[in-house]
Write a structure and sequence with these properties.
single chain; alpha/beta; 7-stranded mixed beta sheet; 3-stranded antiparallel beta sheet; 14 helices; 12 strands; 45% helix; PyrdxlP-dep_Trfase; pyridoxal phosphate; 8-amino-7-oxononanoate synthase
């Protein structure tokens, strides 16, 4: 026991009191002993590729061919042919000149965006202006902190508010950055990417799009949503619809070269291991032929929203495979999630600071391994439990 444990215990007690205590629950629940089917709405494995034989086989093959680890960072131990092959395929997927792999999306966002923001003083002699959707992923907000830059948050998906902020800053000589997700991970709605592209052009701003929750599951052949508007940089991940782990940026060759020289999270991180590269490579080969799976996931998400709306339940502005079941109260969200688990339905209660205060919710993620019947059962159980829990408060 550390002499500092009482400080940690006091902080944890406060978290429990406010309904914000978090626990790392088992990834795989105990086996179901009755006839009920287990329905898991927690995973971002939207195409159910994480257990696909093609990914497992190529992961094993590349482990035998290249080894189980990369050894060090690519600037120390060198780049494998496997890294180059996967990056070439990722650039093709995103219709860019090049791509660069990172161990995770969180790490990529913090390293890449903070490096770009630090460039402004070197290039212009003035601090950058960073226009950030207020509901962007935590990694993007933390990147501004890492760079020592105060961000200018615009109201969620509010193009008019963003334009007002850009107009106000026209005399600034620092570089401008507009930063957004294409699909917001806790809300399931889409950013107005075409409008953001117009504003970026009009105000000479660098457009940075985190396409993590669209890559693989949305867009033609799973290319995501960002490629259609040709941003200056796309962030994609391989640990969601592509069923593996890791992340990448897709950009011009020049920007890739610059990041290799300036991005700390690339320079100082051990490279992605060959077995993971094999799984990513196999997923990229599969994506063009998974149109039916993508359409089915979209249809099930629409069906879930319909069933919930018919019962007067709110799902925000969701238009994708992510459906938030809005609750508001932290404790109620936790109780509903716990009651669902007893029905063999697994959904995560999302609470502040991941989402704004008073917007606690269950995040329901649809994936290709589900059936319409699974979705129907989930909706009915969720509606019944919600009425019961809220009615007792």
């Amino acid at each position: 026991m550390s002499r500092f444990d009482p400080i940690f215990q006091k902080s944890l007690a406060q978290r429990k009191k406010s309904g914000l205590f978090r626990q790392a629950l088992p990834a795989h629940p105990a086996p179901v002993t009755n006839a009920a089917r287990l329905c898991d709405f927690r995973s971002n494995d939207y195409l159910s590729l994480s257990h696909h034989e093609a990914l497992a086989s190529r992961a094993a093959l590349w482990a035998h061919e290249y080894g189980s680890g990369a050894g060090a960072s690519r600037l120390v131990s060198g780049t494998l042919a496997a890294h180059e092959q996967v990056e070439s395929k990722l650039a093709t997927l995103k219709s860019t000149e090049s791509a660069l792999l990172f161990p995770s999306g969180f790490q990529a966002n913090i390293g890449v965006l903070s490096a770009l923001l630090s460039l402004s003083m070197e290039a212009t002699g003035e601090a950058p202006s960073v226009y950030m959707d207020r509901l962007n992923h935590a990694s993007l907000h933390l990147a501004c902190n890492a760079a020592g830059v105060r961000q200018k948050r615009f109201r969620h998906n509010d193009v008019n508010h963003l334009q007002d902020l850009l107009k106000r800053d026209t005399i600034s000589k620092g570089l401008r950055f507009i930063v957004t997700e294409s699909v917001f991970s806790m809300d399931g709605d889409r950013a107005p990417l075409a409008d953001l592209r117009l504003l970026a052009d009009r105000y000479d701003a660098f457009l940075y799009i985190d396409d993590a929750h669209a890559t693989g599951i949305l867009g033609e052949a799973g290319c995501g949503l960002a490629s259609a508007v040709k941003p200056d940089l796309i962030l994609g991940t391989c640990g969601k619809a592509m069923g593996s782990m890791g992340a990448f940026i897709a950009s011009s060759q020049t920007l890739r070269d610059w990041l290799i020289n300036h991005c700390a999270s690339f320079i100082y991180s051990t490279a992605i291991a060959p077995p993971i590269l094999g799984a990513i490579d196999a997923a990229l080969d599969l994506l063009p032929d998974l149109t039916a799976e993508r359409e089915n996931v979209a249809a099930m998400a629409a069906f879930l929203r319909q069933k919930l709306h018919e019962a007067g339940m709110a799902t925000g502005d969701s238009l994708t495979q992510i459906v938030p079941f809005m609750i508001g109260d932290n404790e109620a969200a936790l109780e509903i999630a716990a009651r669902l688990r007893k029905e063999n339905i697994y959904a995560t209660a999302i609470r502040p600071p991941t989402v704004p205060s008073h917007t606690a919710r269950l995040r329901l993620a649809l994936h290709a391994g589900m059936t319409r019947e699974d979705v129907r059962i989930c909706a009915e159980k969720l509606i019944d439990i919600h009425h019961d829990v809220i009615g007792t408060r």
